[in-house]
Design the sequence.
């Protein structure tokens, strides 16, 4: 079964089925009871249920035939003023037939719209409020112009907590007869950090191998090094064994196929878990940041990562002194 089919199969259909986001669900349910809703901005990180919440709101407002009263556009595909003047305006001006006197237009990735398109959208939202309500979905609400923000009710979505993510993944695993170990769930949360869409994708990718979903399987399919391996490499370098730490680095790159920038991010996380004085954590974080900048500028990965390990070896020697 493809990832898209998993998403469609397990995506909540109504607001009561939504995963977490309880305060947002309560506010949206009040709109359903009143049979009315303002223009809205759903903002927050990816994979937290913004698009799903908009579809659930439409379902609860209109019933099973909600698709007839709904238009869903992705502004990252068409984000110019032409799209607003033609597609959006044509849909917004037509009155809805049914108990609810307005239709809903969901504009996904609205923060990718050009400034001119947003200015045109502002006037359209004002003019056709009686016949159409807009739900703008954005990862960064600050990229939406102030006049539009002031016309909309804001909803701030947050990453899902660990227990909610685990509960949802275990339900999928049970239905799909997939064996998931506790270490597998730990690894998925380590990689995804509350992004439920990415978590489902990672679970399916790991399950597609036909093996029980363990930490090693998860890290291998998502292209991330096992944090335990990264931790051991950092400790080896701080212990003064540069050659062994460098061999461990090469082995990780071959084993997991990770990019240098990904390893840098993981080393950065491990620095703050080290049992070293606070002032040394500051120095090590600064060294990691410098190497990360060099990689972004196009420096050679192996040379820079080796240089970082050398810095760790020097730091370990000074800490011992």
Sequence:
């Amino acid at each position: 079964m493809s990832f898209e089919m998993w998403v469609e199969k397990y995506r909540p259909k109504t607001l009561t089925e939504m995963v977490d986001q309880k305060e947002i669900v309560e506010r949206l349910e009040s709109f359903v009871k009143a049979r009315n809703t303002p223009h809205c901005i759903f903002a927050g990180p990816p994979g937290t249920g913004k698009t799903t919440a908009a579809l659930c709101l439409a379902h609860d407002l209109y019933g099973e035939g909600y698709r007839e009263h709904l238009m869903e556009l992705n502004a990252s595909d068409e984000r110019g003023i032409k799209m607003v003047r033609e597609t959006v305006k044509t849909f917004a001006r037509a009155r809805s037939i049914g108990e609810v006197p307005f239709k809903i237009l969901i504009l996904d990735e609205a923060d990718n719209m050009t400034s001119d398109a947003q200015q045109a959208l502002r006037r359209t939202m004002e003019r056709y409020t009686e016949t159409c309500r807009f739900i703008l979905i954005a990862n960064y609400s600050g990229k939406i112009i102030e006049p539009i923000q002031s016309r909309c009710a804001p909803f701030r979505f947050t990453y899902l907590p660990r227990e909610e993510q685990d509960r949802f993944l275990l339900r999928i695993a049970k239905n799909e007869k997939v064996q998931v170990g506790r270490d597998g769930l730990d690894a998925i949360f380590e990689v995804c950090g509350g992004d439920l869409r990415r978590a489902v994708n990672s679970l399916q990718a790991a399950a597609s191998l036909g093996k029980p979903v363990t930490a090693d399987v998860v890290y291998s399919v998502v292209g991330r090094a096992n944090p335990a391996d990264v931790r051991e490499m950092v400790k080896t370098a701080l212990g003064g064994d540069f050659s062994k730490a460098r061999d461990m680095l090469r082995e990780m790159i071959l084993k997991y196929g990770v990019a240098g920038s990904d390893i840098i991010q993981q080393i950065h996380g491990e620095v703050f878990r080290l049992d070293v004085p606070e002032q040394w954590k500051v120095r090590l974080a600064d060294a990691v940041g410098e190497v990360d900048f060099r990689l972004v500028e196009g420096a050679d990965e192996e040379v820079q990562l080796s240089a970082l390990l050398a810095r760790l070896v020097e730091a370990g020697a000074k800490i011992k002194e």
